[in-house]
Amino acid sequence: MANFSPAQQQVLNLLNHYVEQELENQHSKDLLINFAKQHENCCERTLTVGHFTGSCWLVSSDGERVLLTHHKKLERWLQLGGHADGDSNLAAVALREAEEESGLTDLTVEPVIFDLERHAIPARGTEPEHYHHDVRFLVRAHGSEQFVVSDESHALAWRNIRELVNDVDAEESIRRMARKWLKQNK
Fold it and tell me: What is the pLDDT of residue 22?
């Protein structure tokens, strides 16, 4: 039996309980598990080959809309989220990032994984290209939906989830999460 750090073990426990529903994304779980097993410091941004991040599918109180960010560095519309910075409680990371990036305060996170993805982050300045091993959680807005755009975003927008499923301009992972949400909430 392998001897894992507490951070590795917490991430591995979370990943091992996740069942991917989308066939085209089945490989993501294995990629993330293997990465966690290989890197004791898997949640540290200083791991230059890649690291875990916590993101969220932040839905409105009526469950009809999701809050997306037009990310400044990546120049794309994405879910909210960010670096774990050493915190292996990735659900807490997702909630923290949702609050920081949206200004919303009356939010709750479901502590089970909603979606997984590994994606390349292009080199910037002295930072080499690396991978984000993104663990995504469902976060629900309960109060005001009046967001505040953070320094990390060009803009934020509430988007209709049903429309995102067929939006060819949306990232595939956004369309996949929209499909998952709609299947779970028939």
Answer: 81
Six-digit token pair at 3? Answer: 């001897």
174-186, pLDDT tens digit by residue? 999 999 999 998 7
DSSP conformation letters of 37-95: HH-TTTT-TT-TTEEEEEEEEEE-TTSSEEEEEEETTT-SEEEEEEE-TT---HHHHHH
The CA distance from 43 to 14, in Å, is 13
Other beta carbons within 10 Å of 148: 11
**pLDDT for the residue 186:** 79
Instruction: Answer whether 130's CB lies under 8 Å from 167's CB.
Output: no
Query: Would you give the distance in Å from CA 80 to the centre of its chain?
Result: 7
As a whole number of angstroms, the distance between CA 84 and CA 150 comes to 18
